[in-house]
Amino acid sequence: MSDISLELQAQVTNAIKNNQPLTIKGGGSKSFMGRETDKSLQILDVSGHSGIVNYEPVELILTARAGTPLIEIENALAENNQMLAFEPPHFSNSATLGGTLACNQSGPGRPWYGSIRDHVLGIRLINGTGKHLRFGGQVMKNVAGYDVSRLQAGAMGTLGVITEVSLKILPKPKAQVTLTWELSAADALQKMNRLAGTSKPLTAACWVNGRLYVRLSGAQSAVDATATQWKGNELEQIGSFWMQLREHSLACFDPSLPLWRFSINSAAKLNHIDDHSIIDWGGSQRWFSGHAEKKEMQQLAIKAGGQVSLFSGGDREDVMHEPQSALKALQKNIKKSFDPAGIFNPGRVYKWM
Amino acid sequence: MTNTAPLKDELSCLFREFIQSEYVIDDDETLKPYECDGLSMYTQLPMLVVLPETVEQVQKVLKICHEKQVPVVARGAGTGLAAGAMPHAEGVVLSLAKFNNILSIDPINRSARLQPGVRNLAISEAAKMYGLYYGPDPSSQIACTIGGNVAENSGGVHCLKYGLTVHNLLSVDLLTVEGERITIGSDGLDSCGMDLLALITGSEGLLGIVIEVQVKLLPIPETARVVMAGFGNVQQCGEAVSGIIAKGIIPGGLEMMDSYAISASEDYAKAGYPIDAAALLLCEVDGTKEEVQAHIEEVQALFKSFGATSIRTSQSEEERALLWFGRKAAFPAVGRISPDYYCMDGTIPRSQLAYVLTEMQKMSERYGLKIANVFHAGDGNLHPLILFDANVPGEFEKAEAFGGEILELCVAVGGCITGEHGVGIEKIRQMIVQFSDEELAQFHAIKDAFDPQGTLNPGKGVPTLKRCQEYRVLQSAKERSLGSINESGAHNHV
What we know:
The complex is a heterodimer of chains A (about 350) and B (about 500). With about 350 residues, chain A is an alpha+beta fold. In chain A, about 25% of the residues lie in helices and about 25% in strands.
């Protein structure tokens, strides 16, 4: 619960001076993501930079230091019947807000509620010249200057040290129901996409182990009426199912195998993979556990209108979808504009950055 | 000023080698309509205007301009309100008006591929047959184009619930300053690595030229109804706005108008607005029939408890349209009662609504210029309309100074200088109020990463550090003479 931004800034300044690259670390809950980097690098520990700075339920806005545990934020919100609508996965109790933004982590409701990047309103960031900067703001709309805040989503700390994040908060839905149907992957994909095209209070849709799960959230009367109309089997204990899906703790996630993540066209077929995958985000996100060549996976993803990454396990040398060459050059330039000396998380996202 | 005539002739000749002659405009008379965008007080004739018809032509134009270091200003429909598309005297205006085709609509995964010159409203019109529409709906949606929407990260009355442009994009095809085509984003909801799509959105044509856009489409709500409430004072009205949010309702739209805007609009639109009210709220609730019914009842009860003097709920689609017509007609209605008006665009925390309104009233008296207020109250986005007469010498300058002071007030109360119109040239001075030199230096570094020669829309969006120094000197002199705007911290940098 303290502000250690001056110490963090001093460490960064020192690292620049000594040309000493840093590994930025919050709660360490997502250290398995991205490329494996040099373990001998000095660690910049942001977890001590913690605490909710400002929370105004009526404004639907919360600002917290980057090292604040998600649990702390979620507890504070729950007291006011509010939530982080992007339902961030935790993967450990130590998960922090800064890491969640840096890794762009969002849960099952993402296609309907938006991702963490959609809820970010502003950030503070220490860049690679050692300056502590503020971008965006604590208001709902702000288009002054380039959107540096959302740019951080997925950059995995390669552009600087996120020290503070302001977020849009949403009220918790009054009622929730989960419906299930036994269906093949192909039929489930079709049904998910069809349901998502209707104006109903749909907030999650996934297919696991021969079963389609659909979550409805909103006013009690709306949820009830839609549930009656859609005629699925109602699932008891709905909270724990979606939580387990989000946390990858459902039995079908095999931690001993490499886990591939496809972010693709919601209606695309992944042929031989679909039947053995977990289909989330109404079809837009697919998880596949198994040994495979990255090149082949990448070709499949491109055909399906999107990208693939090796989310966990396997060979951590090359894990992200390889961008086209012009895009690669551009990302290198942007990296340089934030971090001219290349001290932040080198090689974490791509070997070349 | 440099003599551009030889360069102009050379470029016209070069461009005419691959663009139809009449689409390379070089005579002053035909150039004239391009001298400004929606902020018509800021004008500048460009050296040339080109209207290419193919992507290859655009690429060639960019390549030539890059080689010759000629400024390029991209232009859609020219409806922007911050002079973001105002031409450069020694530059080329690259009009994307000919790229007005909807390339495809995918009703299954609910998306549309568009050329940049497709009008915002045309997307929803085309998607309607599939029960879908495009969310962001800026007031200029009849005319404004999706390319311009991406450039400005446009919002509209429904963005509290459905988001800004940035929340409704899947991918953008960008031409770099050298003319190389890159695709940012995909059919999926995110991409590996840093979020370039967010960086491009709202970058005001400073980082690249948008040549194709893929947007998400949403299912058309089953039903939508509007509750209109009049309030005896602005304070109560502001509290009612917060009250709805606190209740856990996110309205599709939540708009506020002050008494001057109400009466101007009612005179023009005859929507039955309560002309004796000090402030008015329009609250639209959309969704399933059951949800709308439940929320409408809650909203009505809530307005009553906050002291609403009148409440009217739309009973039909026609009535809903009529109530909105009054709001949408507010700008032209004000245009009828004043020779000119100047539309501002700041964002504030909702809790500061009443305070900011009162302060603006004081400024209005000090400047001797009337003001009408129309807000996207749900997300704290103000659109004060400053009334003035451009034919009275010095009055526009007064309006401009008034507007600048409003934006500085927005920053002082924890808000920002632009919610959805962008910075362009108009708000470039206020950028130094919102950002430190170090932050602006980071913006310049980003710009250099895309456009090291600085030929894409130069002079817009981010002030040069040299100009910042000049502004800051002016600023501190002004503050010394006026006293600080707000004791609680005119600048929120620590």
